[in-house]
Design a protein that fits this description.
This protein has 7 helices and no strands. By secondary structure, it is mainly alpha-helical. The protein has one domain (23-150). The relative contact order is 0.10.
């Protein structure tokens, strides 16, 4: 019976510690883990957790009208996403064959783009330029990941080139 009481007390203390931790602590702990991670696939998957925490932080900043913090957090997210993409490309250059990490990263970046779009709708004009730059960079990363995951096949490249060089039908304007 004393053993159960000790376990219950331990669980209660752990719950209090977890509830007492602030979201900023969570983000900083996840950021430290992300920075230390050397395995590119685990780094990409860890970005999901870190990114979710960062996106939640941007939502809180938005509700508090703290657009400076919002911009800084989104810039850090963009930098983390770029680091994860670069690590994956270095360790697993053939994304089509080794999709682990690439798919999760692409999905999460696409989700972040939607969040940035929502931010741009509500942000005051003076805070938009840095967020627009982040959005543009994230869109470029998203496109890069999609091209790595689904490269054009040689047959499709030839069809695309042929389609681009075919003149319009007589009497029709392009």
């Amino acid at each position: 019976m004393a053993l159960w009481g000790a376990r219950l007390l331990g669980l209660s203390l752990a719950a209090v510690v977890c509830l007492d931790a602030t979201p900023a602590d969570d983000v900083s702990q996840l950021q430290a883990r992300f920075d230390r991670e050397s395995n590119s696939v685990r780094k990409a998957k860890l970005l999901e957790k870190l990114g979710d925490a960062q996106l939640e932080e941007t939502r809180r900043a938005s509700r508090a009208n703290d657009y400076t913090t919002l911009g800084l957090v989104m810039e850090k997210y963009r930098d983390n996403a770029r680091a994860a993409v670069d690590a994956l490309k270095k360790d697993h250059p053939d994304a089509e064959r080794h999709t682990g990490g690439y798919k999760q990263l692409q999905i999460h970046i696409h989700k972040a783009i939607r969040d940035v779009d929502e931010i741009l709708v509500i942000a005051p004009e003076e805070y938009r330029p840095p967020v627009e730059i982040v959005r543009r960079d994230l869109a470029a990363l998203d496109d890069e990941l999609l091209n790595l995951l689904f490269p054009l096949r040689p047959e499709r490249k030839k069809l695309k080139e042929k389609k681009d060089t075919v003149p319009p039908a007589p009497g029709l304007s392009p």
